[in-house]
Amino acid sequence: MKSLLAIVASILIAGCADTRDQQKKPQPLPKDTPGRYQSEGGDYPVGSIPVGVLHDAQRNKDIDIVVEYPSRGEGPFPVIVFSHGFGASNKNYVGLTEYWAGHGYVCIKPAHADTGKLRELMREQRREGKTVGEAIWESQNVNEWRDRARDVTFILDSFNQLEERYPELKGKLDRNRIAVGGHSYGAFVAMLLGGVEPVVDGKPLQLRDPRVKAIVAMSPQGVSATRGLTAESFRNVKIPAMYMTGSEDRGALENETPEWRRTAFDDSPATGDKYFVSIAGAGHLAFLGGFTLPTSDESYLDRQDQINAQRNPGTMQPRSRGDNRFIQQRGTFDTIKIAAAAFWDAYLKEAPAAREYLDTKLSSRGGVTLLKK
Fold it and tell me: Is the separation of the CB atoms in 111 and 63 below 8 Å?
């Protein structure tokens, strides 16, 4: 009897162990995921490390970081490192990274050396008669490009240190499912780490990191002599990439138009799957979660007021421009964060439902133009 009980107990213990092992393995999303890509919420409550730091001894540099992560649920979770725009901060973009963390990602945002320098450069350009764009790119050369990229790769080198210093991250960082996202200058960093090779002193600059499995470049750069980018610079982007822009996404230089940003997609190879997402009405700051509609949209708002009044004569007052702007801003930002979340799910979690959403449903959101190759 004792031997029989021992055998039964060992079988039960083994079965429990197998179940635990299975739970630890990353699971794809169910095929049917109704409601997953809504404007709010997610599968996980979100925890935050608002003030973190890593020290790079080789550069004798402290890297300030903000981390948002699923505070419950068994990891490991895919990791997204997000690079901010010039002069911005790792305290920005919280609407994006909290949303992604709630959908099962650890999001790490480094503060780059140019944090807070935009106002300083704006004062300089007024003194010297330069445009803001000229002042920005004259202050940034290949050394700054490398430094920004190194901020990201140092974080990837420091997962063990992160888990030791911040116990709440223990077991949550998936070493095999890593992505980089970025906005504007940060998009340039994501593209460099994804395989884009600017020409510097007649030679391609190679900063690709093989640990990076996918990138999302918001307000990306196209062919540009200022950044050493030619059409050939994009040929080695062989991982999945999503390039995002908007119809009002103009940069600091005159030629930085939405059409110019699309060339990043056009010049990238189809290898690994590439997406281009353009959102009507989205300007350069839309990706931070707050922006102002250009004056060209005033006539659109007037038309919407007229339509509302005609549909509900005598019972409904035309909506104020302020309300309309808020609604359109919120809807645009929802599209941005949802499109990226579906892309992360498709290529970091290998979720069939996410890929189906990208291919068949994302373009049905208002104002979205989607291209894929």
Answer: yes
Q: Which distant-in-sequence residues (6+ apart) come within 8 Å of 133 by Cβ?
A: 251, 252, 253, 254, 256
Tens-place pLDDT, residues 239-249: 999 999 999 99
pLDDT digits (tens, 9 = 90+) for 42-80: 889 999 999 999 999 999 999 999 999 999 988 899 999
The answer to whether 267 touches 317, Cβ cutoff 8 Å, is no
What is the three-class DSSP state of 246? strand
pTM of the model: 0.81
- CA pair distance 351, 269, nearest whole angstrom: 23
Pair type for strands 173-183 and 203-204 = unpaired
CB 83 within 8 A of CB 182: yes
Which region, left, alpha or beta, applies to residue 319 given φ > 0 means left and ψ of -120 to 50 means alpha? beta
Q: Identify the CA nearest to 250 among candidates 221, 215, 224.
A: 221
Give the integer Cα–Cα distance in Å for 268 and 155.
27
Give the amino acid at 118.
L
Q: Reply yes or no: is the peptide bond before residue 78 cis, omega within 30 of 0.
A: no
